[in-house]
Amino acid sequence: MELTWFKKGTIYQIYPRSFNDNDNDGIGDLRGIIEKLDYIKSLHIDIIWLSPIFSSPNDDNGYDISDYCSIMPEFGTMNDFDELLKETHRRGMRLILDLVANHCSDEHMWFEEAKKSIHSPYRDYFHWRKPSSDGGPPNNWKSFFGGSAWELDKASGEYYLHLFTRKQPDLNWENPKVREEIYDAMRFWLDKGVDGFRMDVIPLISKPAGYPDAQDIGFRKIIENVYANGPKVHEYLNEMNEKVISRYDAFSLAEGVGINETNVGLYVNEDRKELDMLYHFDILECTIVNGKFEEVSQFDLVQMKKIFKKWRDAIHGTGWIANAMGNHDFARMVSRFGDDKKYHEESAKMLFTMLSTQNGTLNIYQGDEIGMTNITLQSINEVRDVQSLNFFEENKITKKYSEALALEMINNEGRDNARTPVQWSNEINGGFSTNEPWLKVNPNYKNINVERQNNDPNSILNFYRNLLKIRKEYDVFVYGNFEEIEFSNPNLYIYKKTLDEQSIVVILNFNNQEELFTTEDDIEGAKVLINTYSNLKMEDSRKVFLKPYQGVILDLK
Ligand code: TEU
C-alpha cells in the first residue's frame, strides 16, 4: 500500500473552545490557535484537526451547526480563519475541519423553514414521523444523550428524529438536495484550501428503512446494529468521495462509531473509494461496557492487545485506520490507562510509546502531550457538557444513583475531563485566558503546564517531541509486520515490528512494579531509540528489568 502523506502524518486535534483564548473572553478562539502554531509545529505535527468552528448556538459546543459556511463569532471571523489556514500551510502543516453532516442545529435555516409547514421544501431535509398509536414517539430509539430520540413538534403534531440532543435534528440523507447542500459546504472549504475533514458520526447518515424498534441489546449494540451502517451508507460515502473528496488533494478521517472489525473494510478499503481512514471506538470505550454512565470495567491490558490485533488484522493490506486513546468525548488517557498520580510522567510517556508505534495514522488530542489529567468538578454547577448534564437530570427522576455518585461518575467518565482549558503556564487560569474560562481550569496547572515542560528536557512534552521526530524517520512505527511477544502477559506489552531494513522491539510495562522480561533476541548491541527512564537495567544480553511504567523502543539494526 502506498504510504501517502495523511497515512504517515501525525494528527493533532484542537478543541478550539479550550485551546487558547486570544481576546480574553474566557473562550478559546482562532487567533489563539494562530498564536500557538509554532508550538504545534515544534511537536512535529503534520495535520491539525479543528473541532467545529462554524456558527452554532452551542447546545453541543459547535456539533450543532446553524451555518456550515460561516465562523462562530466567539471564535473570530472568516479573515481569522483565512489567516489560520495560510499560516498553517506556511509552516508545512495541513488543516482539516470537522464535518458534522448527520445532523445540524434546530436553529439552522433549513430546520426553521421545515418547521413552518409540512409543505415546506425544507420539510424533507429531516426525518418526520407521525406519533405511534398511543400518541408517543414513533419508535423506542434512545438519544445518545439520554431520553427519546424523537421530539414532538406541536404545531404539526409530528415528531422529528434527533440521535443527539433535541437541538440536533438528524438530516435526511435520502433527500438528494440534502446531500448536495453538504457537498457544497465541503467544496466551500476545500476551495479555500483546507486539506480534508474529520467526519462526525458519519456511519449514522443512512437510517434503517421504516425506523424499526431497537431490540434491548445494550446501547453499543444498538448503535452498531440499528443506528449505524444503514442500508445506503456506502452509496452516500461513495458519492461523496466521487463528487467531492477525490477532486481535491484532501482526505477523510471518519469517526468510526458503530463500526466493527467485520465491516470496517467496507468503509476504508482502498478499492471501495469511500473513506481514507477511521478511528474506531474499541480502545476509547474499552472500559465502557455498554454506554457512558452505565457499567464500567477494569482496564485490562490483554483485552487492549487483542483489540489492537483485531483491527490490525481486519485492515491488513487493504485499508487504513487511525489510532487514538483520547479525544474531546472521553476522559483523559493518562487518567484512564495510566497512573495520573505517583507515576504520572512515567505512564504518560509509556502510553504514548505504545500509541505511536501502533500501525496506522497517529492521533494526538490537545493537552495529552503534557499529560493533562481528569478534573474533579465540585458540584453539578461546574459541569458544562450536555451529555453529563442530561445524565444528571435524568438520574434525578430515575434516582438510580445518589447525586453524589452521579457526580462522581461524571468526574470519572464525563467529557468535560478532556475539555478543560489547555494549561500553558502557571499564570492565572493556566495562561489560557485572563478572564474566567467557560469551563474550570484543572487546578493542577501549577505543576502540569507547557511552559514548565518546555524548559525541562525530561518532560512529557519533550518526550513527545523527541519520539515524533524519530517517528518521521522510522516508517516501521507507522506500519510494517507486527509480531506479538508475550501476548497473554497481563502487565507487559511487547512486540517486534519490521519493515524492509527497519526492525524495532517495543517493550512496555503497564505495572506499577518492576518487571523482568527475557527476550528471544539477543539485544546486547541494540540501539535504545526511546526510553521513558534515563537508563535501562539489564542482567545479561537477554534479560531486561523494567521500572514501573517503563517503555523502551530498541532498534535491532
Ligand atoms: O460523537 C459521537 C459519539 O458517538 C459520542 O457522542 C460518543 O458516543 C460519546 O461522546 C461518548 O460518550 C460525535 C462528537 O465527537 C461529539 O462531540 C458530539 O457530541 C456528537 O458526535 C454529536 O455531534
Show the helix and strand layout.
Elements: H1 5-8, E1 10-14, H2 30-35, H3 37-42, E2 47-50, E3 54-55, E4 67-71, H4 78-90, E5 94-99, H5 109-116, E6 128-129, E7 150-153, E8 158-161, H6 176-192, E9 196-199, H7 219-227, H8 233-243, E10 251-255, H9 264-268, E11 277-279, H10 301-315, E12 322-323, H11 333-337, H12 344-355, E13 361-365, H13 386-398, H14 403-413, H15 416-419, H16 450-454, H17 460-473, H18 475-478, E14 481-485, E15 492-499, E16 502-509, E17 515-518, E18 527-531, E19 537-538, E20 543-546, E21 551-555
Parallel strand pairs: 1-2, 1-13, 2-5, 5-9, 9-10, 10-11, 12-13
Antiparallel strand pairs: 3-4, 6-8, 7-8, 14-15, 15-16, 16-21, 17-20, 18-21, 19-20
Helix pairs in contact: 12-17, 13-14
The structure holds 1-O-alpha-D-glucopyranosyl-D-fructose (TEU).
1-O-alpha-D-glucopyranosyl-D-fructose binds at residues 60, 63, 100, 144, 164, 200-201, 255, 257, 292, 328-329, 387, 415.
Using the alpha-carbon principal axes, give the shape.
Answer: globular
What is the first-to-last residue Cα distance? Answer: 24 Å
Task: State the helix count.
Answer: 18
Q: List each distinct ligand once.
A: 1-O-alpha-D-glucopyranosyl-D-fructose
Report the count of strand segments.
21
Average pLDDT metric = 97
Report the β-strand fraction as a percent range.
Answer: 15-25%
Fraction in helix: 25-40%
Which strand order do you get reading across the main beta sheet? 11-10-9-5-2-1-13-12
Task: Specify the structural class.
Answer: alpha/beta
The unreliable regions are none
Q: Major beta sheet, specifics?
A: 8 strands, parallel
Radius of gyration: 23 Å
